[in-house]
Amino acid sequence: MKQKIQKSKKYPIFRHTTKINGEKISRDIVHRPNVAAIIAVKDNEILVVSQNRFPNGVDIEIPSGNIEKNETAVKTAHREFLEETGYKAKKMVPMMNFYTTIGYSTQKIFTFIAKDFVKIAEPKLDDDELLKPKLVKFDKFMKMITDGKIIDSITLSSVMFFAIKKKLI
Questions:
Q1: Rounded mean pLDDT of the chain?
Q2: How buried is residue 165: exposed, middle or buried, by Cβ count under 10 Å (0-12/13-18/19+)?
Q3: What is the per-residue pLDDT for 34?
Q4: Which residues of 119-155 are buried (b: 16+ CB within 10 A; e: fewer)?
Q5: What are the b/e assignments for 81-116, b being 16+ CB within 10 Å?
Q6: Assign residue 164 a region: left if phi > 0, alpha if psi is -120 to 50, beta otherwise?
Q7: Could you read off the pLDDT of 43-95 as tens digits, one per residue?
Q8: 63: CB partners within 8 A, 6+ apart
Q9: DSSP per residue over 74-97, as a string?
Q10: What's the gap between Cα 23 and its chain centre?
Q11: How many helices (H) and strands (E) does the chain have?
Q12: Structural domains of the chain ordered from first start
């Protein structure tokens, strides 16, 4: 059973109730859209965005965005990559899927690797997006992770998995 308990302009909260081992269990879950996230590495550089995540400050992240209704994750990856960075990829290769906060949110992340990407335009940002794309040496980016300068969970999970899979660490 699911009951809406909190209205929000962006993210409603529902109380989910079920029985587990004969006991009634309830969880309050934030319903958030799924996200496509993109790892773009070429010539030992990773394409990232510097994003103002008010009120938490500026963060360095991989490009990502909400999957719109009736849109596939791969279509979102192509769209968001171009919008946020001005780069276009010939192909988006699925890498991994995961939940950001499985016990509190419905949001699932679909991570892709951008292949054969080139800059074709300037970013086309939404009104509430405060970000700038930039290329960072991959080794420097990994040091930023270990130094605690990269704190975004989507970026951390995706890039660390990528680095392990590619035997970069």
A1: 92
A2: exposed
A3: 97
A4: eeeebeeeeeeebebebbebeebbeebeeeebebebb
A5: bbbbbebebeebeebbebebeeeeebbbbbbbbbee
A6: alpha
A7: 999 999 998 887 888 899 999 999 999 999 999 999 999 999 999 999 999 99
A8: 37, 38, 40, 47, 48, 49, 80, 81, 84, 85, 133
A9: HHHHHHHHHHHHSEEEEEEEEEEE
A10: 35
A11: 3, 11
A12: 1-31 (no CATH), 33-165 (3.90.79.10)
Query: CA of 80: how far to CAs of 26, 101, 127, 135, 140, in Å?
Result: 35, 22, 14, 17, 24
Identify which of 48, 37, 65 has the alpha carbon closest to the alpha carbon of residue 134. 48
**Which single residue is written with the structure tokens 């529902």?**
14
Confidence check: pLDDT of 17 > 80? yes
Residues with Cβ within 8 Å of residue 16, at least 6 apart in sequence: 1, 2, 26, 27, 28, 29
| Helical (H) or strand (E) element with 23 | strand 23-30
Cα distance between residue 32 and residue 11, in whole Å = 6
CA atoms within 13 A on the CB side of 142: 14
pLDDT greater at residue 10 or residue 26: 26
